[in-house]
Amino acid sequence: MFRSYKFRIFMLMLFATLGIIFSNRLIAQFFLAKQLQDAIHIDMGRALQACSEKSTDKQAFLTCFKLKDQGSVISNASDFYVLCDSAGAACPGSFDPEASNFRMSQSNPMMQYWRGRIQDVEWMAVRQAGQSTGLQVWIKSSDADIIREKLWALRDQNLWRVAPFVILFLMILTWLAAKIIMRPILNIEQSIATLNANNLGQNIQLKAPYREFESLVNVYKELLQRLNESFTHARRFASDASHELRTPLTILRGNTEQLIAILPLGSEFQVRVRGISDEVDRLIDITEKLLLLSRADANSLGQTFVDVDLSQLLTQFIKPEEDEEQWHLSLNHLVEPGLIWHCDKTLAIQLIHNLLENARKYNIPRGWIRVMLTRDQGQFQLTVENPSLHIPPDLAHHAFDRFYRGDASHTRQIDGLGLGLSICAEIARIHQGVLTLRITETQTVLLTLTAPLNAPL
Questions:
Q1: Taking burial as the number of CB atoms within 10 A of a residue's CB, which of 15, 187, 233, 323 is the most buried?
Q2: What are the pLDDT digits (tens) for 68-88?
Q3: Least confident stretch, 190-194, 242-246, 452-456
Q4: Are 235 and 298 in contact (CB under 8 A)?
Q5: d(C-alpha 264, C-alpha 266), whole Å
């Protein structure tokens, strides 16, 4: 099962974003507690400085402060203030300027601030500077935290409301990021997609869009060079071997023909020599076809393009009376007349011969062959259809592979090399055409050649 690169990027960015949000929440919550307590502590000094004349009545003191601090969220902490006077109302504890947690505020030097623990309760207190007696304002730190918790609850509530939009924008961002990340790879892929066994030696304009891809491009270029050298050696070997085998095989065929002529007619030795001669002819056929394929692979196949009347040429191959008498096959054909094909005539003859020969060999008893040639907008289509027994399930995928003969148990009694359709495919490619094979619903084999009437040189 293939994993999605874009999905992986999305999940990584999603977890990274969630991690950032969660970490930000913890860090903000930690610092907000201290910052909010400091802000409330400073507000206590502002309240004491602004409304000290209302010290006799807490409600009047609170009303005074809230009127002077309208719009402030943390002013609601004043509801938890404890007003006291060391000379009158008892304070929660002693305000000790000598304690380590006593401090002065730079923003309000007229006030003294104290924070400490009294009987396991954390308190914050403020009084006017230089006065050991007089009005003091106290508040429990836990009461100040109530304000923070309310603010944090609002923040969390809004976070859940914003979460769908965050995920939506994250998906859009991931899509854009994946597209940007994949763009250089797709550009390289498009350059590589044009490569095949025939153009490995050509100078492919493959450039690294960014310096991070230089190593990848260089490795791929080196791989192309090694592949080209391997293909060249393989083609050269097949061509040289086929060429070198032609002479000794021709000599063998000549000698066997001489032996057949001098041996007693119908003798056992003559029959054996005739069998050897047939196998020699088979080897010669193999070498000739391998030589043709190797030259086609190397783009060194000699070609002479002329205008050929394909309709007339095809009609010469179609002889219904011979098919019915020799092959016991009925042949139906529909050939559009006057179809001129600019091609190599020798290769065209071999192409038609191989297609019809393949249809004759792999047919059924008392079967048929249907041939159709039509013209369509500057190109032609030649179809050869025939029924067949025991069609291999992988025929459509491997029919043009070299030496492929389908199910060996069925084809071993049928004379053939498995090279005919491979040669046809190469001839079609040389003429800028395409040869396809399809198995129809009625279990027939349909070969279709589509090529331009005037193939570009």
A1: 323
A2: 776 666 777 788 888 887 655
A3: 242-246
A4: yes
A5: 6
Task: Spell out a b/e string for 62-85, using b for 16 or more CB atoms within 10 Å of the CB, else e.
Answer: bebbbeeeeeeebbebbeebbbbe
CATH architecture for residues 305-452: 2-Layer Sandwich (3.30)
- Cα(107)–Cα(396) distance, integer angstroms: 87
Pair of tokens at residue 277:
């001669």
Among 4-18, 316-330, 423-437, which range has the highest average pLDDT?
A: 423-437
The one-character DSSP state at 437 is E
| pLDDT reading at 409 higher than 50 | no
Shortest CA distance to 318 belongs to which of 302, 329, 306, 305?
Answer: 329
Query: Is 137 strand, coil or helix?
Result: strand
Residues in the chain: 457
Question: What sign does the CA torsion over 226, 230, 235, 241 have?
Answer: positive
- Sheet strands side by side (includes 368-376): 330-335, 368-376, 379-387, 444-452, 434-439
Do residues 301 and 295 touch, judged by C-beta distance below 8 A? Answer: yes
Write down the pTM of the prediction: 0.49
Q: Which fold has domain 211-297?
A: Helix Hairpins (1.10.287)
> From the centroid of its chain, how far is CA 40?
57
Domain boundaries, the chain: 5-156, 211-297, 305-452
Query: Under 8 Å CB-to-CB from 306, ≥6 apart: which residues?
Result: 342, 343, 344, 345
